[in-house]
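> Could you send the DUF2191 domain-containing protein prediction when you get a chance?

Sure thing. Input:
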Amino acid sequence: MAKVTVGLDAELVVEVMVLSGAGSPQDAVELVVRDYIARGHRTEERTESGGGSARISAPQPLEPPQG
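Output:
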């Protein structure tokens, strides 16, 4: 697979390293990118599998309001 070099702000990379628990900047950024892609695929699966017919509605109250 081809490699790409990207310049990023050092503070951003350090924060990503801390949050991801990765030991190197390369690994930390790669983890974030892979997670972002995986989330996109999961979202696509959820939106495509329902066919648009399933909608989430607000829960209905058990008793009508009294007043």
